[in-house]
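G., the chain you wanted modeled:
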Amino acid sequence: MSKLALGTVQFGTDYGINSGVKVDPKEVTNIINFARNNGISLLDTAQLYGSSEKVLGDVNTQDFDIVTKSRGFDNEVITEKEASFVIADLHKSLSLLKQKSLYAFLVHHGEDLLKPGGEMIFNQLQSLKEQGLANKIGVSAYIDNQLIEIIDRFDFDIIQLPMNILDSRLIDNGLLNKIFSKGIEIHTRSVFLQGLLLM
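Predicted structure as tokens:
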């Protein structure tokens, strides 16, 4: 797997401080081919990224490792029925992406795991991993006290976190070492602050 990943939120929705415009489908093909030709083999997407998953499925990305994420859970208590939505989410993602399995499937909002019943979401993720539908399971989170609780309570393979040259909290507060010591794979996002650091 490549050390660089391509974030695809702008393939499916208007996003970013730089231009905030959804990428034209023809340009998506050019970007994917550029990534492929330059050794980038990991794509990051999510159900909450508009049509991003469908766009990726339509441009022949079967040779890429793909990380996607579940829906967000609005209710303050996670019921067994709501937790089961994770299974439906993964199957929907596989269909849109035209993939048989994923490199990783993440909980999109880490705080959902800490709600009453949140452990049922984790249990569903484990089941999907055991079925071979996702090679790894994880969570997208922010650097705060919730992250510490998530790390202590759940045995995840991957944690996706914000980190860039202006934000070194992950290093300064010792969390990077704690995550690393548990053998958890770290994926950083917002490396260029949605393009702000490139302006």
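The longest strand covers residues 134-140.

Shout if anything looks off.
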